[in-house]
Amino acid sequence: MWRRINRCQVCPTIAPWRKFPLGRRGTARFGLMILGEAPGRVSLEHGRPFSNPHNLVIRRAIARAVAPRQLEAEELFYFSDTVKCWPSSPSGANRSPRAAENAVCVERHLLAELELVRPRLIIAFGARAAAAALGHPIKLAEHHGRPLMRDAPDPLRVIPERPAPLRVIPMMHPSTINIAGMRRVGIRSLDDYELQLATLLRAELARAGLSPSATATC
After folding, report:
1. Is 157's pLDDT higher than 80?
2. Structural domains of the chain, ranges and CATH numbers in brackets
3. Cis before 39 (ω within 30)
């Protein structure tokens, strides 16, 4: 399935179809998934999701959540994107995925990926990622940081043996261009976002039986 994703060139609007290499998605072992909207150019150059040095909020929050253990984020989480290819602008900068690109990628790839990964928790960063995980749009400012439940049937289909319902936590995307959006949900700065996210992640890891002491045996 992942090889099919990496060969996909269905959307002419998203050429040159740059994606993360195989094997850079982390682990599905614990059923914890981090879902973004689309890969960014700098993270692709690093070969690691969410690794733009100007915006490492999510990775720093994970490090704080597992402290004093020193674990890579990929040792605990499975990383994916709603749209698998980098949506580039004519200038070479990142842009938001178009509605058609988003719809095609969810139907062709994300649903099949979820069937294989079988997450019990998805932390979705951005409105498109939250809508893809839940199966319907939401007002992100009203639901930021609040766990929502998604039952197994459509659009995630019936997945045998997966715990139900699937929990989804929608999150504002942490970036310098989304300061206004973060302020709408009471976040004053990226440092404030990082602290709040670390607190949320620590609670979710404990819920999954992965407190800092427990991660020593992971």
Report:
1. no
2. 2-56+73-188 (3.40.470.10)
3. no
